[in-house]
């Protein structure tokens, strides 16, 4: 049984994305991940330099009704919504300046894009502490 991040972080997620995992033919994963998957996150502008500027922001997946997926033994949907959590609170100061609704991003495994995402809602990014 999944323990929601909100339970131990004591604040709401930073933002919400709509995502779609790439198929293997598109260069994506062979298998869909499970709840607890820890990818990094990048937005389009993070690819403008010679090195990728990965953001340590992890997804927590919802089901088709917007409820948190609690079964860790079931693969997540190929597309849907995910609550996003900034792992290092001090990073929120930067993310507050650079993330906004409508931005395109990617779930990353190292330098590899495995899913595309769009920020659809800012939830706690602007109010969650930068000093947890």
Q: What's the story with the biggest beta sheet? A: 6 strands, antiparallel
How many strand elements?
A: 6
Strand content of the residues, in percent? 25-35%
Order of helices and strands: HEEEEHEE
Give unreliable regions as ranges. none
List the strand order in the largest sheet. 2-5-6-1-4-3
Question: What is the number of helical segments per DSSP (H or I, 4+ residues)?
Answer: 2
Structural class: mainly beta
Kindly give the count of domains.
1
Task: Indicate the overall shape.
Answer: globular
Mean pLDDT: 92
The H-level CATH homologous superfamily, spelled out, is Translation factors
Which fold does the CATH topology refer to? Elongation Factor Tu (Ef-tu), domain 3
Helix content: under 10%
Work out the oligomeric state of the chains in this entry: single chain
What is the CATH C level class, in words? Mainly Beta
